[in-house]
Write a sequence for this structure.
């Protein structure tokens, strides 16, 4: 993927910030707890915080969070839903981190998987899919056609046609510790 394509995708979320906050799944608390285990303190920088999905999970776990988000619409939604969290505009480019060999900073990575689920209906799953970057940048007619196909498929399946179901999810966490 070209850099321009990544920029278009990364800047596409702001237009759907409210829907993103409403329909995107929360992070599995067990996964976040595991990721924080080796941390020496309970202060976290959530860089690229979006609407605050991870920030909210961190706050629920008693972590002091500073959220940084470059997209003004996403940042506004984060501030609306998490008014007590320090939320700042910015990006990795604003951090002025030293260009060094990251492998010299950290030890061997550890990985763990955390199965969980999200209660959905066919309609709410379609709304969730509509917040994906690929969908957000599609031409309107193509997006509506694609979402129509998803609706038809979900309506044809007994497990998703009527009422709520649990959408199975798997959170994979990679953590590294400073030696």
């Amino acid at each position: 993927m070209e850099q321009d394509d990544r920029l278009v995708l990364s800047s596409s979320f702001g237009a759907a910030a409210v829907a993103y906050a409403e329909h995107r799944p929360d992070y599995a608390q067990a996964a976040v707890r595991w990721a924080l285990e080796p941390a020496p303190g309970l202060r976290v920088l959530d860089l690229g915080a979006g609407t605050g999905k991870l920030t909210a999970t961190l706050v629920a776990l008693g972590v002091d969070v500073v959220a940084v988000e470059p997209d003004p619409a996403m940042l506004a939604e984060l501030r609306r839903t998490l008014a007590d969290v320090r939320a700042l505009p910015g990006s990795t480019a604003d951090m002025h981190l030293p260009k060094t060999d990251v492998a010299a900073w950290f030890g061997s990575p550890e990985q763990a998987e955390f199965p969980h689920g999200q209660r959905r209906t066919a309609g709410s799953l379609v709304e969730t899919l509509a917040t994906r970057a690929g969908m957000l940048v599609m031409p309107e007619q193509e997006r509506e056609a694609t979402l129509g196909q998803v609706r038809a498929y979900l309506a044809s399946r007994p497990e998703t046609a009527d009422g709520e179901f649990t959408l199975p999810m798997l959170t994979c966490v990679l953590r590294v510790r400073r030696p």
Remarks:
- The longest strand covers residues 110-120.
